Amino acid sequence: MTPDPLSYGLFLVGVRGSVATTVLHGLEGLRSGYPPVGMLTETDLFSDQPLVSTNNLRISGWDVAGDLHQSAAELARLNVLPRDLVDLSALLRDRVESEIAPGIPEPEDEKLVDSKSADRAKLPAKEQLEALRGDLRQWVESGRLRGGVVVHLASAERERKLAPEWMDRDADPIALLDSAPIDFPPSILYALAAILEGMPYVNFTPSPGASLPAVAGFASRQGVPVLGNDGKTGETLVKTALAPMFRDRALKVLAWEGYNMLGNRDGAALADPARKAAKIKNKDQVLPAILGESATRHTGVSIDFVPSLHDWKTAMDYIHFEGFLGVQMSMQFTWHASDSALAAPLVLDLARLALLAQSRGHAGPLHAAAPFFKNPIEVDEQDFHRQMEILTKWLAVQS
Fold it and tell me: What is the dihedral of CA 279, 243, 345, 151, to 10 degrees?
């Protein structure tokens, strides 16, 4: 069949999760006339860019367990998704459910996933990679798609020690898979599958994905854009916008303590210290990067799983700072918002940005995507305003 020249696949890892479910219904809502609130790609900044229309994005993806209808019903109950939109999208969910491919779980989770995903977990890494590539080809062919973009939305992976060869930008990651351990991070396999199929890869999680030098270098050589890591949606977004004010007004930050509560599936995953480590590191590194290193400044970030909050995450920050003549003062803020409603528009932005970069011939890590991430690949700048300047300059060159 001849591909549709306008349609692209949006292939989501963790397609039954809260964020992915909100993305799915968000696309349907946009088609029905809901305003694109929270989407940077719908602002004047992108008005001259040849972006793929949200009307032409078709969702498929992988997951290891769950049910899309149940996810949607839960988000409607929590007032994250409009009930009428959920009711009207039942057939769409049926279509996506019929196409979902088994994901690749971590070995510790084998008893918590469906049987097909458990079977995939037992395969050698190269066979897992080929299975993912086959899924992508099948979705493109059956949907008559021109191309696609893979977005990683699964729960944070446990931190793993990898062979030092993965830190070599010139290494061949496919060859390295021959010696991959049984607990090899699945996010790297999803990234490699996307790259080998010529599709941009976006990592919205703190998992390694395409951030390893061997994978980033491979993407550059293959001519495929990769974007990541760890979507910046809430407390860290506020930090990276607010911290420059203290720096630029010469106010001395003595301490900045942040406390986060989250109740959805991601919150449950982050209750595991091995999963939480990368998330905490990404959230805590932004202040030294903006304010400078200081042996006397205290900074801390903590995350607790609070089941009753479900998708509504709450962050409380306390900032202790010093002003003129040593006067000590403080600022406090509380951020309370739906995790999925914050993330979903950014996922759509990043998918469109990734496809735009590909159409412009960009290869490897896209530094211009820095404003969207806590730990942007190959970008040290953490000041949100300066990150936006990087994106704005990149768009101006592309126009």
Answer: -30
Distance CA 264, CA 34 (A): 25
Given a contact cutoff of 8 angstroms between Cβ atoms, the answer to whether 268 and 280 are in contact is no
At 386, which amino acid appears?
A: R
Selection from 285, 286, 289, 391 nearest residue 346 by Cα: 391
Alpha helices in the chain (DSSP H): 18-31, 68-77, 83-88, 90-99, 115-121, 125-142, 173-176, 186-196, 213-222, 235-248, 265-269, 273-284, 286-291, 339-359, 384-398
> Six-digit token pair at 12?
């989501």
Contact assessment for residue 214 and residue 361, using Cβ atoms and an 8 Å cutoff? no
Query: What is the full DSSP assignment across 137-156?
Result: HHHHHHTT-SEEEEEE-SPP
Low-confidence residues in the chain, pLDDT < 70:
1-4, 399
- The CATH class of 8-231+341-398 is alpha beta
pLDDT of the residue at 2: 62
Distance between start and end Cα atoms, the chain: 33
* Whole-number Å distance between alpha carbons of 394 and 365: 13
The domains of the chain are located at: 8-231+341-398, 235-337
Which residues lie across from 320 on neighbouring strands?
255, 330
* Per-position DSSP letters for 89-138, written without gaps between them: THHHHHHHHHHPEE----GGGGGGS-HHHHHHHTS-HHHHHHHHHHHHHH
Check whether domain 235-337 has CATH 3.30.360.10, yes or no: yes
Cα gap 234→225, rounded to integer Å: 25
Evaluate whether 8-231+341-398 and 235-337 have a shared fold.
no
Q: pTM for this structure?
A: 0.95
- Bridge partner list, 336: 314
Q: What is the mean pLDDT of the chain?
A: 95
Q: Which residues pair with 312 in a beta bridge?
A: 338
CA gap 286, 299 in Å, rounded: 10
What pLDDT score was predicted for residue 366?
Answer: 98
Angle at 19 between CA 17 and CA 24, to 5 degrees: 90
pLDDT of 282: 73
List, for residues 91-136, the tens digit of each pLDDT value. 999 999 999 999 999 999 989 999 999 999 999 999 999 999 999 9
Q: How far is CA 254 from the centre of its chain?
A: 31
3-state secondary structure 343-384: HHHHHHHHHHHHHHHHHCCCCEECHHHHHHECCCCCCCCCCH
